[in-house]
Specification:
The chain has 362 residues and is mainly alpha-helical. It is built from 17 helices and no strands. It has a domain of 199 residues: Growth Hormone, Chain: A, CATH 1.20.1250.20. Helix 5 packs across helix 17, helix 6 runs antiparallel to helix 11 and helix 16 runs antiparallel to helix 17.
Length: 362
């Protein structure tokens, strides 16, 4: 059924607002104008002092982030480059799969999502030992409050993140709540005497469980200007569903008698490792923004404008891995079409977040 829906959706869904068949011509024009207006209003960020750009880069979307040296005016976005749809290009595929950030984020996303999938299935089993007698109705009823707390906390964190355009710090906040809840859960005895404190700890744990995944998606969307590459990276990030496989391997029935203490320890380790990964991502992005600012400080106006326009500034584009693959295929006389495709993928300048003038949002 999912494959059928995917095929139908590919043919049925519009590419953008201007091709939305279910809207009237007036509604299409209005929808496109809203996108353009949002980009143009946000482009006022180019008036920020240079020293503020790195700190405030997360406050603006991908079309609005100005140069790392914003004293030079930005070009005004046009309807074509804001609402147009070019599909996925060979460059999008190559640069997407060679993106270090997306694989870093994928690993963090898998580790942070383990509690999400684990408790969707195993929460009733975890709560069962806390009740006085086997009562499936009561156990299922007890699963509701943790999700209520999770929904409220997610709304608060997502609202803050959207208002401030900050993604990584709210994500770390959610992971901190999870770590706190997990620490209390593994520290408390599993006897029925401690049932209420343990249940409260589970509520705390679930409160932070659902924050990381959606904010990770928001970070990828906001830091990938090219529509085709953005779709590809979001698809790669979707492999975070592998967390469901890991959670099923961790929460095994043999741990039921101990209140799933061992699985909770494993989950604590995974979430802590995910938090460390997000900290490293935040640090790496700040370092990259500083590096780009330093590079641009040595370029003249013409070089910066050339980089901003088509990614052809003085810095040479490096595709060592792709060039090595092309060299091997050529020497072996294999897959000439693949060689041609790869050569086409690395032609042209840097695009989107690859440009030295792009500021990563945090």
């Amino acid at each position: 059924m999912t494959i059928i829906v995917a095929v139908v959706g590919y043919m049925w869904l519009p590419h953008n607002a201007e091709t939305a068949w279910f809207l009237t011509p007036e509604e299409r024009e209005y929808a496109s104008s809203r996108v353009i207006q949002d980009r143009m209003v946000q482009s006022e960020s180019a008036t920020l002092p240079t020293t503020e750009v790195e700190e405030e880069a997360g406050d603006y979307d991908e079309e609005s982030r100005g140069l790392l040296n914003p004293a030079r005016p930005r070009s005004i976005p046009t309807a074509q480059n804001v609402t147009g749809d070019r599909g996925i290009t060979p460059h999008d595929i190559v640069s997407g799969f060679l993106s270090v950030n997306v694989w870093h984020i994928l690993a963090c996303n898998i580790l942070s999502a383990i509690p999400v999938y684990a408790f969707q299935v195993f929460l009733p089993l975890v709560l069962a030992p806390l009740t006085e007698a086997p009562n499936p109705a009561l156990v299922n009823l007890l699963t509701a409050p943790p999700y209520v707390f999770g929904a409220v906390t997610l709304y608060m964190f997502a609202s803050y993140s959207d208002k401030r355009r900050k993604r990584i710090m709210p994500t770390l906040g959610g992971l901190a709540i999870m770590v706190l809840g997990l620490c209390v859960v593994v520290a408390l005895p599993t006897t029925k005497t401690w049932a209420i404190p343990r249940y409260i700890a589970l509520n705390v744990l679930l409160s932070g469980t659902f924050i990381a995944s959606p904010l990770t998606v928001a970070w990828i969307s906001g830091n990938t200007p090219s529509p085709g590459k953005r779709a590809l990276l979001l698809g790669i990030n979707g492999w975070g569903n592998l967390a469901g496989v890991i959670s099923a391997m961790i929460f095994r029935p043999k741990y039921a008698k101990s209140g799933y203490l061992v699985p909770f320890w494993w989950t604590l380790g995974c979430v802590s490792l995910a938090a460390l990964g997000y900290v490293l991502l935040w640090r790496n992005l700040r370092a990259e923004n500083a590096k780009r600012r330093d590079i641009l400080s040595k370029w003249d106006d013409e070089e910066i404008e050339r980089e901003k326009a088509d990614g052809r500034g003085p810095l040479e584009q490096n595709y060592r891995i792709v060039n090595a693959v092309i060299s091997v295929l050529r020497k072996g006389g294999m897959f000439p079409r693949a060689v041609e495709w790869l050569e086409d993928a690395i032609q042209g300048g840097r695009e989107g977040e690859e440009k030295i003038t792009f500021v990563y949002g945090l």
